Automatic annotation (TrEMBL):
Signal peptide: none annotated. Residues 38-51, 105-115 have a biased composition (Low complexity). GO terms for cellular component: membrane. Coiled coil: none annotated. Belongs to the TRAFAC class dynamin-like GTPase superfamily. IRG family. Residues 52-104 have a biased composition (Basic and acidic residues). This is IRG-type G domain-containing protein. Residues 1-20, 38-124 are annotated as: Disordered. GO terms for molecular function: GTP binding.
Amino acid sequence: MQARLDAVTGEAAEAEEDARRMRDAIIASESRARAAQAAAEAAAATQQEALKQAKEELERARQTIEEARRAEAAARAEAERRWQAAEEGRRRAEAARADADRATRAAQAEAQKAAAAKEEAEKRWKAGIQPVVTPSLEELEKAKRRIQYKEGVFHFAVAGVAGSGKSSLINAFRGLRNKDAGAAATGVVETTLTMTRYPDPNPQHPFVWFDIPGAGTLKITDWQYFNAQGLYVFDCIIVLFDNRFTMTDIAILSNARRFQIPTYIVRSKADQHIRNLMRDMGYDSEEDDEDDPGHNQGRRNKLYKAARKQYIEKTRESVRINLEDANLPDQRVYLISNDTMLSCTTTQRLPKKVIDEIELLIDIYAQVVSRRSLPREDDGLLSSLRSAKGKLTDTLSSAVVNSMHSMAFAA
């Protein structure tokens, strides 16, 4: 019995030991399980973080790709836009070049037409056939407003090619030196680019002088010059030239004749031209300083008379031929020097080297009296004119005119 009890006790102890070992094993297993769970949870957290980072990297990669795609699309669009702009620019450049070519051809054609028309007009003028270009009433009124046309006032136009001395002549007519206040501007180059109005400074003289731009300074052909400048509204036209008589001068005279406007052909700078002829004849101004002044003075006077005579004869013959070629009637040409003209209008002494200055003044003032229907007995006007021109008494009488003519052309 005891033995059995001991056996049972042993078995119980063994069972208890087994139970203890089992408990230890369970505890160890639970500990491992918890460690494994902790490791798994840590691994899961790490995996989750890695997954999150991977997702973020993937999103960034997706955004970068999207941005790259957008940038590529924008670059492609910009390249397309630039190509289209370049293509449009090329098309426009080609169109502009084509337009320019057409415009050039058209301009060349117009220039050829204009040149042909000018040549034809010049031929017609020379043949005595004048182009009929009559201004309308509106154009007449506009031209009168432009020059401030006033009844009772005599309007002189001084016209001609550039550089002929129009401004200096107007100053001389008005008794002014070129540097005086109120004088017309003068210079080496043409200074008159627009028509300029100069009333006579003497209030008793009902004159207004107009400095007309030289034909060579404007984009106007010779045959359009008369109408373009509105010369048809003037009471008198002075056609001034220096070196040669031109088609502009012929055009002015032809049109003035058609409009029944009196004209005066005047060649300026007589003193310069005569000096040039004297040099051609062998005159040297330095000779005046040599030991025999009397001899040199005599030689100088002889050369001056010869040069003066040649200048007068050749000028008048040249103008006569030009008028004849244009089928215009012969007309007096007045040879003047502006300095001599100024002396005539400002002093009481007759200049020594006068040619046609006095006669030009007399004829112009006689024209004023005639055109304005003023009687020659009008002592107010004529006395004023005589006083202003050096108190040349009885200048309108034929006797004095003839004596002045003889004096001007004495050899």
